[in-house]
Amino acid sequence: MADEDLKRRVAREAATLLYFGAEKEYKQAKDKAAKTLGAHFLPSNREVALELDNVTEEQEGSKRRERLIEMRHDALNVMRLLGAYCPILIGSVWRGTIRFGSDIDIAVYADDPEDVLFMIKTHGVKVNKTEWTTVNKNGDVLESFHIYAQINVKHELEIVVRSSEEVNKKRRCEAFGDELKGLNIQQLEKILQTNPVQQFIPY
């Protein structure tokens, strides 16, 4: 029990470091927290992610839930614009785990990213930056095009454009360890009608 209590304290400390921006990555936050508390074992990313959600709720309370609803409505508007590209809401706005500074993450699938870029610009979305990124996942080299934009003065948006061949590709969450399912347009519409602050996190 003592070990479990210490592990929870390390997870809490790591989550606090992440929330207040003292660390950006889970690994560094866990290492620093363990060193601070004299622990010789680390919590899982999932345990830290759950504590981070708790810390955020304590710090931001009801305003966080109001912001989540607002961000989900904004996401839906963008997804409707990009309906031809199988848009999926991912990230913290899907999870319901937003914190101050979170952006809206949407994945779309298109063979020419310029088509997506043209579509959002045509509808008045302000694009701040674009870039190609390449990651190596278990030997697979995956390339994606990222569009960083501003929906309004409040919320930033990141659209990840992936190849249409990846539309059914399953991805795993590095924080919670589960499958990154996200929400399509119809699912998001239903959530906003029935339980707009619903969370999607594995307990």
- CATH domain class name of the largest domain: Alpha Beta
* Percentage of residues in DSSP E strands: 15-25%
Helix/strand order, N-terminal first? HHHEHEHEEEH
Widest beta sheet: strand line-up? 1-2-5-4-3
Tertiary shape: globular
CATH topology of the largest domain: Beta Polymerase, domain 2
CATH architecture of the largest domain: 2-Layer Sandwich
Helix % is 40-55%
Low-confidence stretches: none
- Terminal residue distance: 20 Å
Structure description:
This protein has 203 residues and is α+β, with helices and mostly antiparallel strands. The protein folds into two domains: 2-43; 62-194, 2-Layer Sandwich (Beta Polymerase, domain 2), CATH 3.30.460. The two termini are 20 Å apart. It is globular. α1 runs parallel beside α3 (45-81). It has a five-stranded mixed sheet with strand order 1-2-5-4-3. The model has no long low-confidence stretch (mean pLDDT 93). Helices cover 45% and strands 19% of the residues. The chain has helices at residues 2-19, 26-37, 45-81, 91-95, 113-122, 185-194, and strands at residues 88-90, 104-109, 126-137, 140-150, 156-162. It contains six helices and five strands; from the N terminus they run αααβαβαβββα.
